[in-house]
């Protein structure tokens, strides 16, 4: 298999098409021509359109387009092609696209892999314009030509859209219902985003989960607003008639959202939506443990303020570490400050406070800082042992 053929397993870049149809796929530019063995599996029906002879899927094929997307269809999507024919599509034997004996530089594949690297690793697009990027890449292959950050961004959008089209096809192929989980996340600049994840079992009985949407959620986050956004996402993905359950946090806004969704989708769901609402077990556990931790609330508040005080300035942390070394404790690069709404982070904080109890007690000498009393330390240590079972 040549390197250009391997591109089919990675994704197609630069496709700005808005189409999300499950039967029409946009083909991108390639240097291959119609003489490829791939073309024996397709019939030209005119108007830049071909039909797969194996499964009947219609594919838009521009006059100068190549076989990358057609090859992907045969290798990953087509259900009508036999295993033997699929072997022929890749040249008889599936080989390493980077084998030295057959390798040939393919700038399209390289550009595609770089795009996927940036997306997968969360690398800022500006990195591609740093002064050592192109020299480093050209040291690997002198024929490499870099692109700008805007082109890289457009390529990322193309990969996303192509992946969305393939996921739509996958949803269309499965026989099972689809369950969903959703939560609202707040960014560092206080913008709300709703994330919706689909969970399903494919036809090979593999459990899969895919994030199908991560959209900004305007304030206020009312139940009706949440329901409308989720409903629109389901319609966009043609999953409004496939929903089985929806798992949400245990709060009143989500209860209202479920009420609105049940009214809209009850005819499309199993059991008229009676069992659609699933309450998040992790959120219920968080509420349960938070309630139990009220008995040491005074100690937790004192520990939290002490941790915040020490981590506020490097000089204070440095003083803390001097004391730690003196008392034969391991110095810390930082101390844990919890998120008060997440019990597990509070548990981690009090565990560290108990470990460095002697250091903290020495640190507060000659200060006005409050620390837990002897009785509060004992209660905190006892409760921490119980919390270990939930962690």
Automatic annotation (TrEMBL):
Key word Glycoprotein present: no
Presence of keyword 4Fe-4S: no
Start and end residues of each stretch annotated as Disordered: 1-28
Keywords: Metal-binding, Transcription, Transcription regulation, Zinc, Zinc-finger
Pfam families to which the protein is assigned, alphabetical: zf-BED
BED-type domain: residues covered: 33-85
InterPro entries found in the cross-reference section: RNaseH-like_sf, Znf_BED, ZnF_BED_domain_contain, Znf_C2H2_sf
Domain of life: Eukaryota
Transmembrane segments: none
Single GO MF annotation: DNA binding
SMART domains xref list: ZnF_BED (SM00614)
Protein name stated in the entry: Zinc finger BED domain-containing protein RICESLEEPER 2
């Amino acid at each position: 298999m040549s390197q250009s053929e391997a591109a089919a397993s990675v994704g197609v870049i630069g496709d700005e098409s808005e189409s999300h149809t499950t039967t029409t796929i946009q083909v991108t530019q390639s240097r291959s021509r119609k003489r490829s063995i791939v073309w024996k599996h397709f019939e030209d029906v005119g108007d830049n359109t071909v039909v797969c002879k194996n499964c009947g899927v219609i594919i838009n094929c521009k006059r100068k387009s190549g076989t990358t997307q057609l090859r992907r269809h045969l290798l990953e999507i087509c259900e009508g092609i036999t295993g033997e024919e699929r072997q022929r599509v890749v040249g008889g034997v599936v080989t390493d696209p980077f084998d030295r004996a057959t390798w040939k530089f393919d700038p399209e594949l390289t550009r595609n892999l770089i795009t996927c690297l940036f997306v997968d690793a969360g690398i800022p697009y500006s990195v591609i314009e740093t002064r050592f990027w192109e020299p480093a890449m050209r040291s690997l292959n002198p024929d490499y030509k870099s692109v700008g950050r805007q082109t890289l961004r457009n390529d990322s959008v193309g990969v996303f859209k192509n992946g969305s089209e393939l996921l739509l096809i996958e949803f269309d192929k499965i026989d099972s219902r689809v369950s969903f989980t959703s939560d609202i996340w707040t960014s560092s600049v206080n913008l709300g985003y709703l994330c919706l994840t689909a969970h399903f079992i494919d036809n090979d009985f593999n459990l899969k989960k895919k994030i199908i949407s991560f959209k900004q959620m305007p304030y206020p986050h009312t139940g009706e607003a949440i329901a409308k956004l989720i409903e629109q996402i389901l319609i966009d993905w043609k999953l409004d008639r496939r929903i089985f359950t929806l798992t949400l946090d245990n709060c009143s806004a989500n209860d209202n959202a479920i009420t609105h969704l049940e009214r809209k989708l009850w005819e499309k769901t199993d059991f008229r939506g009676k069992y659609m609402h699933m309450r998040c077990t992790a959120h219920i556990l968080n509420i349960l443990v938070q309630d139990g931790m009220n008995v040491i609330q005074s100690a937790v508040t004192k520990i939290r303020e002490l941790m915040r005080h020490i981590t506020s300035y490097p000089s204070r942390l440095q003083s803390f570490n001097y004391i730690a070394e003196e008392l034969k404790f391991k110095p810390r690069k930082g101390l844990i400050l919890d998120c008060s709404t997440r019990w597990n982070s509070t548990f981690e904080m009090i565990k560290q406070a108990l470990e460095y109890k002697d250091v903290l007690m020495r640190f507060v000498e000659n200060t006005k800082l409050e620390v837990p009393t002897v009785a509060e330390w004992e209660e905190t240590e006892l409760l921490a042992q119980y919390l270990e079972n939930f962690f």
